[in-house]
Amino acid sequence: MKSLNDIYLAYLDCLNRQAFVDLGTFVGDHVEHNGRPFGLSGYRDMLVKDFTDIPDLRFEAEILVSDATRIAARLSLDCTPRTTFMDLPVNGRRVQFCEHVFYEFEHNKIRRVWSVIDKVEIERQLG
Fold it and tell me: Are the C-beta atoms of residues 86 and 5 closer than 8 Å to each other?
């Protein structure tokens, strides 16, 4: 049986390959994101939009901590959003920042996600 860390790293690989057809392997049908019930299709739509807005988006796990049903991760991102990102006029400039995210798993699939992006770091880079 795969560890939660192995499952999570395979999930990040799925995202980075933009293999959205395989998302259901890692994400449950009733997934919630920051308290909002997205369901698998809504979660997929959110990710597709993220990659449309940020074509060079890539998730890299910098810190990964887990227990039996949860993962906490600090994800490092180095990307070039095309236009406005987090209400900031990035407009094609390269930005580097972190996302701090917690995942709760049910039956080895992501059930709940809580995510916070370091917007202050992006603001600092935009000057």
Answer: no
